[in-house]
């Protein structure tokens, strides 16, 4: 089995590393700039690097994974040419499988790893769910086989379910990370060490997987502690965008809690 990687960003980087470590040959790496593709060459010694999206004659692969940003896919596809009968899959959480239907002579699919990727941070592929959708039985079997080489969690998932998973992931990961960034900024401006938050954050994440999160909500919004809320808003007076976000989240928490409901705790 040979795999071609289209893209050179965060997802592509970890795919190249993970596939190579799993003993799968990455035969070609494409990027719009040759330098970006070449930067991944050390992780896949057998790979050809290229900035030409005609893959028919340069190190043909059995599977091509399109690991490019969602907004780049529609612009990329009209310029790509793949070997006949190859399986071509995008890695998007939101784009439809049908987006690839215009590609001639190939079978298509989705190979969506449910994880946040940064080039600087190594990841454990065995723990990452890989969501699969395919246009044919052969493409499905091929992508499942590839997924199982990387991960212990390979899930067949139609597009509508995948989009819901991606939405949930944005709340759980992207928005949460942004809030942690704001929290660190608050501490830094007060000249306080950011690692003060580490035990609290770790406990919050662990508890979220032990109990339904809404049932263990804590904090001034849940307690309807208007004095504390007002004090926090005053501290954010110089940051109106954060002040507004605080108010929106407070209202959302209170909308989930009964007026005189049980108080889960007093911390934070």
From TrEMBL:
InterPro entries xrefs: 6-PGluconate_DH-like_C_sf, DUF2520, NAD(P)-bd_dom_sf, P5C_Rdtase_cat_N, TM1727-like_C_sf
Organism: Rufibacter glacialis
Name by which UniProt lists this protein: Rossmann-like and DUF2520 domain-containing protein
Superkingdom of source: Bacteria
Residue ranges annotated for the Pyrroline-5-carboxylate reductase catalytic N-terminal domain, each copy included: 2-82
UniProt feature coiled coil, ranges: none
Chain ranges of the DUF2520 domain: 128-253
